[in-house]
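User: structure tokens for this one?
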Amino acid sequence: MAECCHFFDLFSYLIGESGPTLQVTCAGINGASTVARDNLVATAKYRDGSVATLTYSALGNRSLERERVEIFGAKNAFVLDDFKTLRVFAPTGTRSYGGGRTDKGHRAELMELAKMTRGEPNAIISFKDAVASMRTTFEAEGIARAALPADDR
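Assistant:
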């Protein structure tokens, strides 16, 4: 569940707002060898009317791409598979980008961090936004824990 903060951060970045209200559904799965709260659905509702849904599960098969982001709006759709490929579905047609290695931005992040330490303009997330993403994650964790039977918490 700890990795959820990265997705809440991504949602807030894409929407341009932080501090959504949350609904979290979490259920233990009989016979599953995972922590029950590692299988949840969180819906984040933003002030501008945007809705982001995170399905977080530890139950999938390892051969399936691990992370998928789908964005819908203004008659467009974007599908990002495992940070490798991006497909854009627009009224004018469909285009694909990438297809190579997974790029989760680690190199770029270190380059931005170096800029920050030198006092140069950079794209590092603000402390305020980092705190907001963690608050959202802690709130989701709290809701998930409260929804589970005491043995699964």
